[in-house]
Amino acid sequence: MTVDPKTTVFLPRTDFPMKAGLPALEPRLLERWKTIGLFDRLREAGEGRDPFILHDGPPYANGHLHIGHALNKILKDIIVRTQQMQGKNAEYIPGWDCHGLPIEWKIEEKYRAAGLDKDEVDIVDFREECRVFARGWIDIQREEFKRLGVTGDWDHPYTTMTNRAESVIVAELGKFLLDGSLYKGAKPVLWSVVEKTALAEAEVEYHDHTSITIWVKFPVVTASVPELEGAKVVIWTTTPWTMPGNRAIAFGAGFDYALVEVETASASGLATVGERLVVLADLVEQVAKDAGCTFRVVARIKGEALAGTVCHHPLKHHPEANGGYDFAVPLLAGEFVTTDTGTGFVHIAPGHGEDDWHLGKANGIVIPDTVQADGTYYPHVAIFAGQSVLAQGKNGKYYSPVAKGVIAAMTECGTLLAHGKIEHSYPHSWRSKAPLIFRNTPQWFISMETNGLRSKALAAIAETRFIPAQGRNRIGAMIENRPDWCVSRQRAWGVPIAVFVEKKSGEPLRDPEVVRRIVEAFAAEGSDAWFTSPPSRFLGNERDADAYEQVFDILDVWFDSGCTHAFVLEGDEWPRQSSPASLYLEGSDQHRGWFHSSLLESCGTRGRAPYEAVLTHGFVLDEAGRKMSKSLGNVVAPQEVVDAQGADILRLWVAGSDSSDDLRIGPEILKTQVDIYRRLRNTLRYLLGALDGFAVSERLPLAELPELERSVLHRLSELDQSLRAACDGFTFHGWFAELHTFCAIDLSAFYFDIRKDALYCDRPDSLRRRAARTVFDILLDTLCKWLAPFLCFTAEEAWLARHPSETGSVHLEQFPTLPADWRDESLAVRWAKIRDVRRVVTGALEVERAAKRIGSSLQANPILTVSEEVRDLLAGLDLAEIFITSGVELAVGSPVEGAFALSDVPGISVHPRVAEGVKCARCWKVLPEVGDAAHDGVCHRCADAMDVAATAGGE
After folding, report:
1. Each residue of 553-579: pLDDT tens digit?
2. Cα Rg of the chain (Å, integer)
3. Quick one: which H or E segment has residue 221?
4. pLDDT band at residue 953, thresholds of 50, 70 and 90?
5. Domain 837-954: which topology?
6. Is the model's pLDDT at 877 over the cut of 80?
7. How many helices (H) and strands (E) does the chain have?
């Protein structure tokens, strides 16, 4: 019976599909992991190992995940998985931030849409609505995170709204209360008139805003030097609405000022010829231009000489002032005064600015209250009582409606010099998108100095590892310059500032027993107990409840999240967690957010940071580098990517991106990820197919492996070293690019290409074929484990294709420990040179193929002319196999003129000669021997392989 040679070729066979079908595969694997209890088994496997604790920064539970969430959680998952597979016990506890304005704002929106007033609802009922809202979104986000392949204790996450969490938060606040750090004070804070609450720095974003600008003349009533008699000091401001709050003027003590006289004035201007004004000497020309007049410099005055000068308020003589502005306005030296814009003088409204407040306090100036919580002036504010400082126009843009009134009033008083407009960067609420104001309000603060909080935080920063390193400088500068921490909010949803204030002294009650009772009540019933219990429950029988005022302000949500280390890393709810955490990981904006508040909270209560290392990633932009927005139509929703292409494509994007900088994503970038994924998948598929029927008995020891196989193992050991460095640095994109090159070039285009002939056509017991399959087995095992943290679904699919099991998983494995004797630097150098020679031959054959003189490279038997050095390099190698030709003739000498050569590989030339003989029907090599073997139409090697196959079949 004649045997068809083609049927005896050992072609790869595998059920691992070429097309991944990730959207269908991934949910099945998620269900499998749930069925086999993968998370619990990981914990069992990690028992006794050193812990690695990545503490989760809690996202808000108030909407579907966006692409930034996907980046953050996938990166965390990659890090946790790599640490687990390096032999650590890396338990990930996901969490959610549930209090604060984002959720309260959503409930208020529902009330506004129904025409209801939230303030008329019982506060406990309102808080319960917020709680239910948060729970609903936690359930949605939990499933969306799980769909991304993020492994964690999803059945037992942490939230800031559990009874235990709220009791710990109030206990942490109690520590600041008891040590004297917590105090009540009136101070200007960034205030949202739309949301009627103070905002933290982390809740503020900056956008362009158009403001009205005014130049105002303050008449001098007491002159420090004779030249100032009868003069007017000119200020410039972009906030006309703050003028009712003016109480002083700041100047630069080291600056030169000029007394000028108005020489000419335009008919439409507000300057008066002959009046004398004081401005910064360097800005005389600019002020004259702004005011539409000309000046004559009368005198120069040193800034320090202005001390002691007193003006009166520009609205003092307004007919409706009624004494409301009848007070002195002194000139005070201020270090914050600049010379680049304005007039060199800064109007000081101590209730509306940080610098203003400090300067006022330092000089004993009373801080006035002028603007109410809703952005309207108090009734006692002369001329402007009840008017709004901020409103939204019909075009949706915000403006200051009172600005026109201020301009009109000052024009009537003759104290306005000019007015205009300016577009500048201005603070806005990141929720309502409305501009903010600085407003003096009674608030609760944690002192940065009373117990050395600033110095403790700076010392902790110095001891913390930051990735990237510049993060240390960024957060350090913030801590160095930050004011006291304002921890109070005028809201309803959150942990209350559970403090009593003695009515007689105005001082907070600092009683450990009262704090203990509050903490116990919160632990039993949650923070609603503060609103439902009589004060006597907390004050005890020994105190008169009528003598104390109960505080109902709500804690800043950043204080809540800053306490997560206290109720997640400490205590017995998650016994495998410990403090400090190995790593905190969030976006770079969290230097002023969660990293910042966690640092201050922990340093204030424990004297150290809650983390050993801090890693930051950038923001996600579209392909053009623009911020994503619905209006631009450039939003990439992770759910849509997962549904269309699979979560592993998103995970590949994260792994292959430099997350220390801003990242980009879009259709073309995702298409590139799909191409990369396909090459990685094809590598796994080829290995699986080539290992069909592989038995342990086939394996060869290192000493018996050919050089080619040993060079591959050397490259694996290099990649292993790179991977471990990447894991240590929590930065993977460089290694992932290296791995992709290894699969696409080193393996597919080189090693697989060369060994394909041996795999398909050698007899099963040939050393060459056994060597290749030995290394293929190592490659598949290693690649599956290496890819597991990154492409968690695909690695599992490939692993199970190789190791079918009802309960097994690649995620229960560890990274392989590669033998040290795989490293062979001299061998690597040798094979790098061999590959250069191969490039020359391949290049010559490509020219022949393009000219259609040959089809396959197996139709060639080139003559290779080389130097003696190259001849020695190639000695002992099967060059036809390496070059994938039917033969090679090696000649020693100088490169042949007219032969193919490459300039970067000197001393080698190739004459691409056509092979002589007949094409083997089995291996397709063109050889003279074909036809004289036992099997017709095949070469000697193939005939031998067919005989072995026939014998094996007969057995």
Report:
1. 999 999 999 999 999 999 899 999 999
2. 38
3. strand 204-222
4. low
5. Isoleucyl-tRNA Synthetase; Domain 1 (1.10.730)
6. yes
7. 29, 33
Class of domain 9-17+663-823: mainly alpha
Q: Tell me which residue of 678, 689, 780, 756 sits closest to 14, measured CA to CA.
A: 689
CB 464 within 8 A of CB 609: yes
- 920 among the known binding-site residues? yes
Averaged pLDDT, 722-734: 96
Q: What is d(CA 278, CA 417) in angstroms, rounded to the nearest whole number?
A: 12
What does pLDDT average to over the chain?
A: 94
Q: What CA–CA distance (Å, rounded) separates 260 from 224?
A: 17
With a CB cutoff of 8 Å and minimum separation 6, the contacts of 577 are 51, 53, 55, 91, 93, 568, 569, 570
Fold match flag (202-431 vs 837-954):
no
pTM for the whole thing? 0.86
Q: Do the annotations mark residue 630 as ligand-binding?
A: yes
Q: Is 725 helix (H, G, I), strand (E, B) or coil?
A: helix
Nearest-CA neighbor of 100 among 529, 441, 560?
A: 560
Q: What whole-number distance in Å separates Cα of residue 433 and Cα of residue 206? A: 10
Run of H or E residues at 74: helix 67-84
- Say what the pLDDT of residue 429 is: 87
Listed by start position, the domains of the chain span 9-17+663-823, 202-431, 837-954
What top-level class would CATH report for the domain 202-431?
alpha beta
pLDDT of 294-332, one tens digit each?
999 999 999 999 999 999 999 999 999 999 999 999 999
Q: Which helix (H) or strand (E) holds 145?
A: helix 123-147
Count Cβ atoms below 10 Å from residue 635 Cβ, excluding itself.
Answer: 13
Q: Is 939 annotated as a binding residue?
A: yes
The structure tokens 């990735």 sit at 467
